[in-house]
Amino acid sequence: QVNLEESGGGVVQPGRSLRLSCAASEDTYSGYVMHWIRQAPGKGLEWVAMIPSDDRPEKYADSVRGRFTISRDNSKNTVYLQMNSLRPEDSGIYYCANGGSFYTLFWGHGTLVSVST
Amino acid sequence: QSALTQPPSASGSPGQSVTISCTGTSSDVGGYNYVSWYQQLPGKAPKVLIYEDYQRLSGVPDRFSGSKSGNTASLTVSGLQAEDEADYYCSSYAGNKILFGGGTALTVL
């Protein structure tokens, strides 16, 4: 059974930081590329970042490169998204998903981030 | 403006077929065999229907099918059912990133 559970969302002021976590079951995590995708309120989907299961480099959307960092802890089957210098336009639901380098397969239920004064 | 272009809405009656298009460029849709299609029910997380242009994810009804011609990919839903009413998104690998379409709201009349 696919199990991806995001956490760490909340309300934060512009310019501050937040770290999201995505805990996965072993069979949902091991060997998979892990992705973060976000959805602004009432808007469409935007791919944010991905991290391979091996030593290949992670990749980022232009809109977050230099501010967000994706990482993974294989001992905990968990992927993280460190978000710094947050902006109001970063608000939305953040989903984690597994898949390959070029696509996603299974998604979590998401965690809500709101960047506001 | 989204990188991939989808019609904002589509509709069909129960039992009919409807096709949703997703237009990109030779740098994304037309350049790789990595178009995916997603269904998002109201208030729910997106669910992958199709990946690698036409591969149906396990458990997805065969009423859903994907195809591609040049820079345009298509999702066809055959034998429309009431529970198919949802938002549908396409995505494509685009070299070091993944692009999404703006989404299509499918209404079952």
Rounded to the nearest angstrom, the radius of gyration of chain B is 13 Å
The mean pLDDT of chain B is 96
What is the helical fraction of chain A, as a range of percent?
under 10%
What is the number of E strands of chain A? 11
The count of helical stretches of chain B stands at 0
**Overall pLDDT confidence of chain A:** 95
Order of helices and strands of chain B: EEEEEEEEEE
Helix count from the secondary structure assignment of chain A = 1
Content of β-strand of chain A: over 45%
Biggest beta-sheet profile of chain A: 7 strands, mixed
* Spans of at least 5 consecutive residues with low confidence of chain B: none
- Which chains make the largest contact? A-B, 21 and 23 residues
Apparent shape of chain B: globular
How far is the N terminus from the C terminus of chain B? 28 Å
Please describe the structure with a list of short key phrases separated by commas or semicolons:
heterodimer, A: 117 residues, four-stranded antiparallel beta sheet, 3% helix, 50% strand, B: 109 residues, seven-stranded mixed beta sheet, three-stranded antiparallel beta sheet, 10 strands, 0% helix, 47% strand, globular
